[in-house]
Amino acid sequence: MHKPEIRSDVVAAAIRRRGRVNVFDSLDPTRTAHVVVDLQNGFMAEGQASEISHARDIVPNVNKISAALRKAGGTVIYLQHTFDEEGVASWSVFFDHFIPAGAGQAVAKTFEPGSYGHALWPALEILPEDLKVNKRRFGAFVQGSSDLDAILRARGINTLIITGTATNVCCESTARDAMMMNYKVFFASDATATFNDDQHNATLSAMAHVFCDVRDTESLLGLISACTTTQKAAE
Q1: Is residue 22 classed as helix, strand or coil in its secondary structure?
Q2: CA dihedral in degrees (68, 26, 77, 124; nearest 10)?
Q3: Looking at residue 40, what DSSP letter applies?
Q4: CA–CA separation, 63 and 59 (whole Å)
Q5: Which of 81, 140, 158, 188 could cysteine-pair with 38, CB 3.0–4.6 Å?
Q6: How confident is the model at residue 230, as a pLDDT?
Q7: Gyration radius (Cα) of the chain, Å
Q8: Residue 216 confidence (pLDDT)
Q9: Is 212 one of the annotated active-site residues of the chain?
Q10: What parts of the chain have a pLDDT lower than 50?
């Protein structure tokens, strides 16, 4: 498990700018989606080319957030990193320049729909009402990646909780774009994972600076519970 930490200068800047580090006082579970990013065998299983061992450690926290939000009337969505024929053909810059020569085909095969690597990690507690969305880029919102935005808008969702892997790639890309598309975004510090603490914490600091409300799992569960309690009292 990572040791989450936001840079002290980022904390100080946030306090100067908005009076505190956290951004939002509450969330409405019925308008919130827990977006679980890429917790697939290709990233999770031992020996896989894209293995991120820390990602296995966060699964209990991911499941806790999903269970709490479902119970409160929220939505759980699993994103799946996908390299189908269309995705590979339309993202030649990545495949031609950012991965070693000859490795592109192997990477694409790992996350090809129907493959072992593309499948969601079996320890995730996935229920029939949960949604699964394929994405063809690191970020889910960029043009040509997925239909996540349309799904969220159709359900009246305006708030996201981001968990998954890799913290500094697909989670960060998705969270940045979501905020700039006017979603309220919570970024789970102990339910996201990448290769090492330095990379993980660099993203937490960047997110806390101007993009997201960075919180740990217990804090997020508290927000969900508080709103649920308030709603019941009003009924």
Answers
A1: coil
A2: -40
A3: B
A4: 6
A5: 81
A6: 60
A7: 17
A8: 98
A9: no
A10: none
Going by C-alpha positions, the residue among 52, 99, 65 that lies closest to residue 187 is: 65
Backbone angles phi, psi at 141, to 5 degrees: -100, -15
Cβ(189)–Cβ(197) below 8 Å? no
Look up residue 158 and give its amino acid.
N
Rounded CA separation 80/120 (Å): 7
28, 38, 190, 213: the catalytic one is 38
Q: From the candidates 28, 170, 184, 227, give the one annotated as an active-site residue.
A: 170
Pair of tokens at residue 33: 């989606």
Structure tokens at 25: 């006082």
Which pLDDT score, from 0 to 100, does residue 56 have? Answer: 98
**Phi–psi pair at 212, nearest 5 degrees:** -140, 165
Catalytically annotated residue among 57, 71, 135, 184: 135
The tokens describing 46, both together, are 């031992």
Note if 171 is an active site residue. no
- What pLDDT shows up at residue 167? 98
Domains along the chain with CATH numbers: 8-234 (3.40.50.850)
Residues 6+ apart with CB under 8 A from 19: none
CB-based contacts of 46: which residues, under 8 Å, 6+ apart? 53
Q: Is 38 a catalytic residue?
A: yes
| Residue 221: CB atoms within 10 Å | 17
What 3-state class would DSSP assign to 133? strand
Beta bridge partners of 187: 162, 214
CA–CA distance, 209 with 211 (Å, rounded to integer) = 6
